[in-house]
Input
Amino acid sequence: MTWGAPTYLYVPGNRPDRFDKAVTVGADGVVIDLEDAVAWSDKMSARSAVAGWLTDLAPAQEPSRVWVRVNHRADLIAADLDAVVRPGLAGIWLPKCDGPDDIAAVAALIAPLEASRGMCELPICPLIETGQGLLAAAAIAACDRVPFLQLGEIDLSVELGIDPDPDGAELVWARGQIVAASAAAGCRPPPAAVSVVTRDLEAFGADTRRFKRQGFWGRACIHPAQVAVAAEVFRPDETELVWARNVLSQLANGGVVLDAQGRLLDEAVARRARRLVADGE
Output
């Protein structure tokens, strides 16, 4: 199975002047944020702006690449969903998801909206940002409507009292749980968490390569300049493609062989090679 390596660009929901440009910068998905990026005083106006923009966008974009991160608070989420569940939407990003009950609650809210508005079933993408959510990651990943998990590292670090170094070593254990839970449920590999580094793109690239080695695939970005860097990291280069095609040639008849360097090649290596070739096409 192959998934591609998507990039997602966050845009504050109270900046409608940035919405149109966001869909042109090359990200695979645009995430309009009604949660952390929007001050309390701007919540209602941001919600209205996003709803209006999605309504105008729907006829022009198919399939939609626009997601919305709603507020997790009980006094906001129903109104958020009522405003943004419309044909211009690709799906919902659900922050601070603590367990399957949160997914079920959102699904129950949006099902009648989908039916009344002539829409297909929308995916719900949970952000794991709490200790409770991290411990429930496997159960969350197994829920209907969930195509992939994400790790909200900033909020999780605050809750757990972790002060990670720039290389994120203190969070490797949490990252591994999200990657393993995704694989166990048959979900797409999780995209890497956002980085607050927006000017030092070399450092951002190194950080993204680290996530790739840890099993993440694709990345969420908070600045347009990060998008191209993240996409390049996950795009197979010619050296990787040559290696992958050579592996598949040697294993064309199945079984186990040794390559020119005496390294064992088997079906597990072939699966990695197939994904590289598919992602390079």
Notes: The beta strands are 7-12, 29-33, 66-69, 91-94, 124-128, 150-151, 219-221, 257-258, 264-265. Residues 100-116 form the longest helix (17 residues).
